[in-house]
Amino acid sequence: MEMTATHTGTCEQSTSCNLYVVMVLHNPGEQREGGERDVFCDVHWFWSPGHIKVSTLDATLIPTAILPHLFKIIMPYLNQGSTVHHKAMHIIKKHYTTPPPGGGEALVPGLQRIRLWTDGHPWVYKCAPNFGPMLYWPVDPASVPDAATDQGYAHADDCEIVHNFFEHDHASGPQDITGKIPRAKIQQAVGYGNATNIYNYHECMKFCMECPELQAPSGNQAHRGGSFTHNNTYNFYAFSDGRDGHQEEYDVVEDKKAEYKTLKGCKADGGMYFYHSMKKEGSGGTGTVVHARGFPCRCAWCRAGEPCRYTQFGPKAGDHTPTWNQTHSAEETRVLREAEKKKRAERNGGNATQLLSAATAAAAANTAATTANADAPAAAAGATAETAAVAVASSSGGSSSSSSSSAVALGEGEINEMLARHGMAGV
Known about the structure:
The chain is of the alpha/beta class. The chain has eleven helices and eleven strands. It has a five-stranded mixed sheet, with helices on one face. A four-stranded mixed sheet has the order 1-2-5-6, with helices on both faces. Strand 3, helix 3 and strand 4 form a beta-alpha-beta unit.
């Protein structure tokens, strides 16, 4: 989210921030025949600075046509990642299992399992930095040795994680509208001139905590019905990067790269849509495994914790132990990112050079074809132009069936336009 208040002109901090949205369904009622059972739905929003980099994706290398789609699905994908996701999950788990300060019972005492539904973003969810911490979630913190050097145990929370993924391009839903609620209030306040100092994530957090309409769901929300109706509480949190002056107020997300063993045979873009971290004896130092299979299953055996009888459907199921390898310091993480960025730039630079050479050669061939002797056979000029078109199409990854007329019209402007579509500098 880009800040637009008037004070952003002299701001020394990043004027963009991220908003991570989590909708939680809990304490369902009795089953009702012919209708949905009643359930409580809470909303948790997490603000953080826009410059937090905990994923390996470089936004400058994404085609501009794709960027709006990525931001539309969920905002934190480009600047937040698995680190923010797991920190948010730990906070939410504590929220539901800790008795209120005034006394009484926790909202969900004895919580043993969390079911997640997300899309399958390969840099946030379907990746080792997500599956690695999942391996340690079921471990009881009280059983972790004091001298343990495995930093993965920092995620031990005595709770299983069942992570379900939607199919590709099928994750749109109520979370999209829910994410717009605080943003719309902020933009409305700025547009009417009622707020001029909302210039970073901290000011967004302050606004949300003070805005009367964001203290609890309105009656307009609660009367709609349905599982994802906001009918209980609104909750706001914020993460600091540890250097922005607000580290004493909020939880800190350190920009440190943690490395875990990868899951063999589970590609980030593969067809695995179900991962379950669970306790299992004899499964290594953690005593837990991440069970992966093609599709979620709610059969009687799965519900009872017994071996499923339908594992033959979809990709092969298997147990994995993506244990922690190492965590780099903030400076090492910065150096690694710079090296990765340089490597990608060199690779893309080589692609740009090849594309530019092919386009320049095509333009020269077109010029030669159009200035050929008028007495030369027309077929020869047509063949030359067609050859130029094939060279350009194949170098840019397109089909070789481009027509000769498009090749004849290819000039410096067209070359620059083509390079721009690939995010590369023109001639």
